[in-house]
Amino acid sequence: MTETIIHTTSIIQKAQCLASHIGQTPLFDISKIQSNPNIKIYAKLEWNQLSNSVKARAAYRIIMSAIEKGLINENKGIIDASSGNTAVAYATIGANIGLPVTLCVPENASCQKKTALKALGANIIFTSKFGTTDEAQIKAKELSQLHPDLYYYTDQYANEDNWKAHYHTTAIEIWEQTQSQVTHFVAGLGTTGTFTGTSRRLKELNPFISLTSLQPDSAMHGLEGWKHLESALVPKIYDENIADQNLFIDTIEAFDMIKLAAQRLGLLLSPSSAANLVGTLKVAQSISSGVIVTIFPDHASNYPDILDQIL
């Protein structure tokens, strides 16, 4: 028992040391992407933190909460389903603090992500490429039930700490960085944590802020990490009553935006970041003035194969 307590304290201390590397990402002015001088548009550059994506926020809070509750330690690690940035965030944090990380990943996940996860020492369990992360979720839950001594199922799609990470950090940063002037918030839906948590807090700070959620316009889309909610398992943390409006984004339009953003903004955006920009510009076209904030979840460097095709 004493040995376990010592190990647990050690892993908590290691995790706490990472706090300064999570969040506090810059707000980048991208207003010049459109012509209305009465509209300011800003993007949170979420690749400027540990693991180089927005998912560091949720992964860190989920892991810290589990450690503090005594659910995980150096011997009992986490298991979850992810084929993208959450997987890398889990693995990065796990490598830093000595926490075992097991991930159920669809076999058609990008080579870049697979290589990163292997390098970070994560245990990867592949699921069918036809089942997407929906099947991977089922597998992760099944394994956690079969081996409760080895795995704690963090379940990012249902874990309240997912959206709370953004409620306590992302929203506050946006509020402070815009000097309380933000009028519109726009973000895509994947696990829905970013949109749900950020939006809830922003509405509390100013009930007149307009909230726009984005999702792919079809089940067969190319926006990694995003969900077409009508055809996918809807995350339990999703609240359909939060958004003031929901817009649907075409994958091709998002890919075209990658090239435009590179030329006009000097930013190499990932497909999801570009899709957020597409949605943001749709919102900008519908208003005469305002301060719009969106999220750029990660950088194009995470998707070299897509970048080669587009640019």
Task: Report on the architecture of this protein.
The chain has 311 residues and is an alpha/beta fold. The protein has two domains: 18-48 and 167-310, Rossmann fold (3-Layer(aba) Sandwich), CATH 3.40.50.1100; 55-153, Rossmann fold, CATH 3.40.50.1100. 43% of the residues lie in helices and 17% in strands. The protein has ten helices and ten strands. The strands form two sheets. A six-stranded mixed sheet has the order 1-2-10-7-8-9. Strands 5-4-3-6 form a four-stranded parallel sheet, with helices on both faces. Strand 3 (77-81), helix 3 (85-97) and strand 4 (101-106) form a beta-alpha-beta unit. The longest helix has 18 residues, at 160-177. The chain is globular. Residues 1-7 have low confidence and may be disordered.
